[in-house]
Amino acid sequence: MKDSLSLNQPVNLELKKLVSLTEASQLLKHHRSTVHRKVKAKKLPRPITKNNRTIGWRLEDLKPFIKQQ
Question: Which of 11, 23, 38, 51 is the most exposed place for a label (fewest CB within 10 A)?
């Protein structure tokens, strides 16, 4: 059986990476509570949730906000 991924194919893991609240606060140079406030005010994208638990943000979703720093 052949795997769907080949060793010869480059995989862009950066697009798949999820950033935790701690990592997001470090990248954005904001306190964790500030990140929560900005999400609530819709100034930052909402994190991805699964089964009513916060998982994190896609790195590509946060990049425009990181560049504004």
Answer: 51
pTM of the model: 0.70
Adjacent-strand bridge partners of 19: 57
Burial of 13 (0-12, 13-18, 19+ CB in 10 A): exposed
Helices (H), 1-69: 21-28, 32-40, 59-67
Q: What is the CA radius of gyration of the chain?
A: 15
CB-CB contact of 45 with 39 (8 Å): yes
For the stretch 16-28, pLDDT in tens is 678 999 999 999 9
